[in-house]
Amino acid sequence: MGRNCSAKNCQKNDARNVNTSFFKFPDDVTLCAKWIEFCASPQLTAAFQASGPYGIRGRKICSDHFTRDSFRAPLNTHQGLKYGAVPRLNTNAEEYLDVEYLEDSEPTDVTPAVDTPMTKSKRKKVEKRYYVQGRHDLFEVLILEDPQ
């Protein structure tokens, strides 16, 4: 049986995802607590509170949850994480986003429309989430579900 990623809603394991790296939780209590918080798992939290990092020995988080600047060699995740790296990318969460958009109002005659478009607010499901690492910044790109 392979190692599974402990991040919430992540289904990756090392048997099926050979190009994904898996990292064990750190022994440093403060750093480990940040990893536990990211995972949002009541079972992990309880085990950590009962026994500290020892209580979650053998648990892993996959490389998909770390920004490129978290790795020793950003192009090769198998080289390992830098000390102090904390998972930040939740690529598997199903989310909804409140979106404001402009509603086009069609003019009834040929004269230019005087009315400005009305702003409406709708809740749209986040279909895909991409993270783009720039030289100094991390950008988040959201693809929203088409309402039709």
UniProtKB/TrEMBL annotation:
One of its GO terms (molecular function) is zinc ion binding. PROSITE patterns: ZF_THAP. InterPro entries: THAP1/10, THAP_Znf. Residues 1-90 form the THAP-type domain. The keyword Zinc applies. Keywords: DNA-binding, Metal-binding, Zinc, Zinc-finger. It comes from the Eukaryota. Pfam families: THAP. This is THAP domain-containing protein 1.
